[in-house]
């Protein structure tokens, strides 16, 4: 059971393999079927002290081995002497001790906010997105240029949020671009990139520029890491804040990601804003938007049925190049523009994602998706 952003009454349990990866669908389906086949009488409640005495529950302190493992991959020595100063928001979650230790080993001056553990997360959902990082952003903007970076992790520290030296929130799409460029060009780690289908196509453009393979997979980080293994990718990530690299655990890790971003700034000697402009000069710009609406079981049937009954030739005035049903319905337009309708696998929401050449076109595509969905309600 984890300090997830999902409601506690769902009693979510995350199952990991021994290598840190998540089981794929055929495995989780078996676990689910086995659990659902049990009756209440099959469930045994065991006092925690008895479970420890019987060896059913084993306590281990993993902080030091975990930090040591990160510091074998992240170049701690390269950061020392950089005199970087950062602000970190663990969002009342689990990263303060480990990330604080790593930053201390790097001799990075780090100021923490919302650092104490709090199972209610200060009354705010612990998701490191723009709407919930106002305190972090304000600290950087009022810091008189002292801070090179703001970093945040979610409740269980597997996702990351980044704020640049000006106080601008950096989307994970942009962060993935920066890290892929850094790993490939500065660290010299050749290889492709894997993203889920709701993540920016600029990664594909950058991979093509490098002469590397890019791969699109279904939503769910287990599909990202499976794709990474298939093509020996150097980076895998998703727009919702999760990423990992080749050589690290096969799962998203916000603490590791924060340490890698700090290394990137130290080794390049550049700020996030400078790196972004440099990458955009290679890839061009695309703009993403997303939205969600509450879904019903009826919608899960009606929306796909309408999409099949009305083959799409245009989204507004824009011609459709192709349609993918890999996961939901993704409508591919010209010049790497696209629109996606996908029902969430974890909550009753229909998610809508778009990416376009301009913010105005992105708004136009998102409005079209909203109109399409509501027209059938």
From TrEMBL:
Residues forming the Alpha-D-phosphohexomutase C-terminal domain are 333-366
| Domain Alpha-D-phosphohexomutase alpha/beta/alpha intervals | 1-30, 64-167, 173-277
Q: Keywords of this protein's UniProt record, alphabetized?
A: Isomerase, Magnesium, Metal-binding, Phosphoprotein
Alphabetized InterPro entries for the sequence = A-D-PHexomutase_a/b/a-I (IPR005844), A-D-PHexomutase_a/b/a-I/II/III (IPR016055), A-D-PHexomutase_a/b/a-II (IPR005845), A-D-PHexomutase_a/b/a-III (IPR005846), A-D-PHexomutase_C (IPR005843), A-D-PHexomutase_C_sf (IPR036900)
- Highest taxon of source: Bacteria
Gene3D superfamilies membership: Alpha-D-Glucose-1,6-Bisphosphate, subunit A, domain 3, Alpha-D-phosphohexomutase, C-terminal domain
Cite the Pfam families for this sequence.
PGM_PMM_I, PGM_PMM_II, PGM_PMM_III, PGM_PMM_IV
Which co-factors does it depend on? Mg(2+)
The record's comment on protein family reads: Belongs to the phosphohexose mutase family.
| Protein name per UniProt | Phosphoglucomutase
Which species is this record about?
Answer: Luteimicrobium album
